[in-house]
């Protein structure tokens, strides 16, 4: 009971962060899922694969519910979402097939990738947080840059289970001079579509090791279920809270969660 309650609590926090920051709940899920998989006896050699797959499963529901909340408020940008999603799905599925779901992608490799990526995102986010108060949004858009954003997001999501929002938001905000809150809304839409595609892929993959618990590919419903229930309860509150916060405050809050994940992953490596 305590085990599933902790997963439920992680879902509550993940859903809130998803709606608030637009990055999906993966930044919370990848902290708790490795612990859960160790507890139920998943082989250490495949903890990275199961963590990524089930984090993306939870992220799909977090993104879906938060996106629906934005849609009801008229905050929806289908053209940008679709353009980014197409390249994101392609990059994500190729990465899963050729890199992630292979013996090469061990738990240590997974943690190293997460740490280096998050450090880069942390530096970028903090360097631009102070600029948000005087930020001027422009209308600069190119399909090429949107495609590049999607490729980067898909690769990030598949390698880390974070959903891709940690790449999409900085790219749109800094590269496209798009306001953080609009970038966050687009990020949630892309995360929803991309995560769904990768979840469907992982449902039909065969784990490299024999697993003694019920599973569908790399998805464990008994683990992801409590996360998803918690996520659905709080995602819309995160969206409401984000409308009341300054863009710079959102950036600093985002940075604090990045630091938390970096510390946790460093501890796992050491």
Automatic annotation (TrEMBL):
Mention any Pfam family matching this sequence. TauE
What is one term from the GO cellular component aspect held by the record? Answer: plasma membrane
Q: Does the keyword Glycosyltransferase apply?
A: no
Which superkingdom, per the lineage? Bacteria
- UniProt KW keywords: Cell membrane, Membrane, Transmembrane, Transmembrane helix
Key word Transmembrane helix present: yes
Residue ranges spanning the membrane: these are 6-35, 47-68, 80-100, 109-126, 146-173, 185-204, 216-238, 250-267
Question: What is the recorded membrane topology of this protein?
Answer: Multi-pass membrane protein
Q: Where in the cell is it found?
A: Cell membrane; Membrane
Q: Which PANTHER family match?
A: MEMBRANE TRANSPORTER PROTEIN MJ0441-RELATED (PTHR43701), MEMBRANE TRANSPORTER PROTEIN YJNA-RELATED (PTHR43701:SF2)
Q: Which family does it belong to?
A: Belongs to the 4-toluene sulfonate uptake permease (TSUP) (TC 2.A.102) family.
Name-wise, this protein is Probable membrane transporter protein
